[in-house]
Fold 2-dehydro-3-deoxy-phosphogluconate aldolase.
Amino acid sequence: MTKILEIMNASPVIPVLSFKSAEEAVQVCRALYGAGLKVLEITLRHESGLAAIAAVKKDLPADAVVGAGTVLTPEIAKNAKEAGAAFGVSPGFTEELAKAVKELDWPFLPGVATLSEAMQAKEWGFTELKFFPAAVSGGPAFLKAVGSVLPELTFCPTGGISSDTAEDYRSLPNVVTVGGSWLTPRGIDGEIHLNLDLD
Ligand code: 3PG
């Protein structure tokens, strides 16, 4: 899969994952893949992020699509691509990052939360965007309004979404998938306990 839209279309939910270790990543991603979730976003918020991406990519069947989340800088983008991430996701949008991912020729989903950011991303050629943080930035009503002025943009809303609200977003014409961490909550024991409630 080379286009970000193809990747988004491959799954109605993209789990946003944070792991303490590569071992934990492999264990959890095996279970998610087994439940039919083939597009996985592993965030780079922990030291083990890049190792987790490499280990999961090696472990899962070839049709799994393992991407990197929390891509904040050109250097992180380069490292994530080198670790084998099939795509990258950023919570925001900067020109420096846009330029870098274009040069890397790497499927990328920049984050936006306002009309101006969406227009700027479009100027850079990004027509698929993460809407983040979705719930506190206006939720489905915001995306409905964006759709009336920028109908050529397609979104993956993320941030504060749960199985109760996922369909409110997905039923919009400019949304193809939603992202979220609700499938992999960490308990007070510090471990991830899967919640495979998809919608
Ligand atoms: C992200 O990085 O996309 C968010 O942390 C995911 O948001 P959520 O934890 O509210 O689902």
Observations:
- The chain has one domain: 4-180.
- The first strand starts at residue 13 and ends at 17.
- DSSP finds eight helices and nine strands in the chain.
- The chain has a mean pLDDT of 96.
